[in-house]
Amino acid sequence: MLVVGAGITGIYQLHRALEAGFTAALWEAGEGVGGTWYWNRYPGARFDSESYTYAYLFSRELFEEWQWSELFAGQPEIERYLNHVVDRFDLRRHIRLGARVGSAVYDEASGTWSVTAADGATTTARFLVAATGVLSVPYFPDVPGRDGYGGESYHTGLWPSSPVDFRNKRVAVIGTGSSGVQIIPVIADEVTSLTVYQRTPNWCTPLNNAPITPEEQARLRTDFESIKQTLDSSMAGFLHQPCDRASTEDPPEARQRFFEKMWNSPGFAKLISHYTDVMLDEEANAEWCSFISAKVRAVVQDPCTAEKLIPKDHRFAEKRPPFVAGYYETYDKPNVALVDLHETPILRMTETGIETAEGERQFDIVVWATGFDFGTGALLRMGVVGRSGLTLAQYWADGPKTFLGVQTAGFPNLFFPGGPHAAAGNNPRYNGDQVDFVTDTLVHARDHGYDTIEVDPAAERRWTAMIDRGAAKSTFGEISYYFGTNIPGKPKKYLLNSGGRPKLFSTIAEVVDSDYEPFRLGRAASPSRSA
Ligand code: N01
Question: What are phi and psi for residue 224, nearest 5 degrees?
Fold first, then answer.
């Protein structure tokens, strides 16, 4: 097996493959392991899922020996953790760094994949597992003159490994998604001036991070089994428990108290443990949004700036909401300015800065916090060619088609856990479920003497239709990058599994019960047949 990508999913896939007795190697484009947590090393990058719920759960010893310092760990600690896992399970000798896959071509006669990296290295694998992630291709908007800008320029998702010196610099940050709102408050005090270029404000609520106390560390170790059980079975892969009532069941004063409780709750509790109607009912959502707006107005002293920071075009959770620490407070600092791109759009980059309708501002550093080509970006850049010369780019020209978000018809022995049609929740939990399924499927094939496996097109059609039907009912709107709408020219298709984790679980159970009926198992150089 060749695994591509040494992020959370790829590392786990490599471990599971070796444990199951496969010969396995992993190629990674970066010069270190960690995937998202290697590339996104910008100041302020951190988890917004609780550290121990995002970490691996396959080894109790690992869980017990690694003590997270904070409820929501920062990027350096996460990168250290992933390096620890790689060494702890003796995976490093199977990993080749600096190997960006540029071509992967299926050979029907042998049932294998020929894989070539950008540096010319080649290998052949029977099974190719692209653990290339969903947020791994940074997006730079096509701003005229971008290449002619002469200052320092960084994308949050491609951050250099040597620290960027922000001291005494005039800095621009473009974009106010989860990455932008993390970096902005962290660099504001270091820089001479910070100008934030915001197109769409987000509903930002506090992350409420805290150190993990020694008592809490001890409790986590004792509770490992119950934590694991909850995380393995919960709908979105979190420990947060759903609320037992709708907002309409509480009188107005009690609602305000509950909103305050939500405001002070950690991270995603604000989605999962909120009133049952807040994500579904427009009025309930609007009342929660009014509560957040009042918080913003109370913090941001300049009323004009406060209004610009309050979303007017989308509900809470219509886009993936970011969680923040000291974000709104940043705009009260005298060296920080907000440029509303709806009022004054960017016209072009100059050699020294950014020109909008209000004129040019000069910068030493421009930070692009402008997001990613979500879901399909990395897979479509891997030069994947399946059976009969069909490219993945051709097959997915109108959007991804998958079964369980792990395989696509016409591309035998290729799997992509953690790719399009994957998680809608705490990613490592969902992606781990997919890795387990892929590994178990390959063990099943091996045990029955098969060496090719390919999903039946009918099963793929059913799964993809289920995703499209569910997308219409999703909390996320078409304004969200989950529909691919942030990338010009990308097909507007829902890129998560709209059936969620329960649908993944129930379909996997059906697959196993039916003896892998939705897959065609075969022997290379022999006609494929249904199992
Ligand atoms: O990217 P985004 P991100 N001119 O796409 C703006 C995860 N994550 O890197 O909204 C000007 O959310 C764009 O504006 P608009 C998390 O899943 C997690 O911030 O399109 N601006 C938007 O403001 C997250 O959702 C953590 O109008 C332009 C921003 O760029 C995902 O990564 C931390 C523009 C892009 O926001 C992506 O977050 C960080 C243009 N032409 C990230 N084009 C955790 O806490 C785009 N923008 C775990």
Answer: -50, -50
Report d(CA 141, CA 132) in Å as an integer. Answer: 22
**The Cα angle at residue 224 between residues 62 and 41, in degrees rounded to 5:** 50
Handedness of CA 164, 168, 172, 175 (dihedral sign): positive
Overall residue count recorded for the chain in this entry: 531
**DSSP-based three-state secondary structure for 523:** coil
Question: Quick one: tokens of 522?
Answer: 């075969």
Cα 480 to ligand 1 centre (Å):
10
Secondary structure element (H or E) that encloses residue 64, with its range: helix 60-65
Instruction: Tell me the pLDDT tens digit for each residue of 384-431.
Output: 999 999 999 999 999 999 999 999 999 999 999 999 999 778 999 999
Q: How many helices (H) and strands (E) does the chain have?
A: 18, 22
Task: Tell me the per-residue pLDDT of 358-394, one tens digit each, with 9 for 90 and over.
Answer: 999 999 999 999 999 999 999 999 999 999 999 999 9
Residues 6+ apart with CB under 8 A from 402: 408, 416, 419, 420, 421, 460, 463, 464
Amino acid in position 271? L
What residues contact residue 233 under an 8 Å CB cut-off, 6+ apart?
A: none
Amino acid identity of residue 347, one-letter, is L
CA dihedral 523, 525, 529, 531 (to 10 degrees): 0
Q: Whose CA is nearest to atom 46 of ligand 1?
A: 370
Q: Domain 2-31+97-137+373-522 classified CATH 3.50.50.60?
A: yes
Q: Indicate the residue type of 253.
A: E
> Does 176 sit in the ligand 1 pocket, CB within 6 Å?
yes
Q: How far is the CA of 154 from the centre of ligand 1 (A)?
A: 14
What is the model's pLDDT at position 531? 32
Q: What is the CATH number of domain 139-202+322-371?
A: 3.50.50.60
What's the gap in Å between 319 CA and the centre of ligand 1? 10
Delimiting residues of CATH 3.50.50.60 domain(s) in the chain: 2-31+97-137+373-522, 139-202+322-371
Using CA atoms, how far apart are residues 147 and 202, in angstroms rounded to an integer? 28
Answer yes or no: is the C-beta of 293 below 6 A from any ligand 1 atom.
no
